[in-house]
Design a protein that fits this description.
Radius of gyration: 18 Å
Number of helices: 7
Strand content: under 5%
Structural class: mainly alpha
Largest sheet: 2 strands, antiparallel
Shape: flat
Strand order of the largest sheet: 1-2
Number of strands: 2
Distance between the termini: 37 Å
Order of helices and strands: HHHHHEEHH
Amino acid sequence: MNTYIRSVIKEFTDGKALADKTIAVLSDEQLSWNPGEGSNSISIIVRHITANIRSRFTDFLTSDGEKSWRNRDGEFEDLVVAREDLLQAWNESWTLLLDLLNTLTEADLERTVYIRGQAHTVIQAVNRQVAHYSYHIGQMVLIGKICHGLDWKSLSIPRGGSQAFNDGMFGRK
């Protein structure tokens, strides 16, 4: 497998893992909590990422990434969606994405694909989505932190924990 593809798969799976950990520690009410007018709840962000993945990566090499069946505006409606349904769609979309990435060849990387009629190389299109999903996953983590306040458990290196983390990484006691 190409080094680039391995790298983006890791970025996508690491990002999804952060989102999954955030979702796991929140109640259903917290998943639907909106931090303010014009903002999105985690549930809305999950629905948006899910639909975006399906649109962008269904028939990725052969059709425009903005599918006619996608209702992007509807993704941002404040709907109550059962956690199980939300997570099923979420996981299915990530499987679609990762399965597709695993099929790409070296020759595919320079092919042209389209998103809303704009030409991108496969590398550009994939990088665009890495950035897009990372942006929204960061929003999800921040909303999770706000919901949990001081009880939030860091999903990475906690404040004041850098030295201990580095010591562990470098095998120092």
